[in-house]
Fold:
Amino acid sequence: MSSGTFEVDGAGLYYEVRGSGPALLMISGAGGDAGYYTEVAADLADAFTVITYDRRGNSRSTGRSGGPMDLARQASDARALIDGLADGRALVFGNSGGAIIGLTLAARHPDSLVGLIAHEPPAVNVLPDDDPARGFFADLAGRYAEGGAPAAGRRFAETVRGEGTYRWPDDLWRRFLGNQDHLFGAEWQGFAGFRPDEAALAAAPFPIVLAAGAEDRGTYYARPSVEIARRIGAPWVEFPGIHMEFLRHPARFATALRALATWVRSDNRPPQPRMP
Structure:
């Protein structure tokens, strides 16, 4: 594994690179830390050049500005990494908020991708207007305003199925706690307002696959993946486990991702299963 800091506009992005072969950029969600994917990246390094990074303002990266951060900035950072570390094009995997960034990247910078796997984007704005999940972001924003990061963070963990049933790596947990104010104070507004650019995604010149965990059916972060897939005519597939299965059972998650990434990379769309 090699690591370094990649300089982009107004920030230094900490990154890690493992392996050789086609480039696979992995974008993390809340907390924005490369450490979410450490074991999965190591498992895939025999088949891909796996690039992970701490998103702007998170963990070992710099770039906190004190103001809201929009998704265009997040997508621009990902594109810069692809340009600098992957010769301009990569397969992209994103989980949760990272999937939202991946969908934004695919719509705004299609020339940077050879494919996208978007795992459980919490894009609640695609759900029906009367769906209770539509209030998720506003609820946590209110808790942050009233009780700060601890109050919002506790509630966030309560909404994610399976959290508390396994142990995070100690170093990742410490960094995550240090990122909570950035998450709720700077990034939250961008994620809350996300609406996929359906026309751009439907017209993408590369495969897009939406995905969710088998144990997450019915959650506010799994259901949008089904709806987005339906709207843009993309395949939807089921991964094993929960929202952060890459931490709970990284080898099992890596096996599923290896198969799907290989399929997408070769431009063969996986067969579309019946959607739940």
About this structure: The longest strand covers residues 11-18. Residues 144 and 150 are 8 Å apart (CA to CA). The first helix runs from residue 38 to 44.
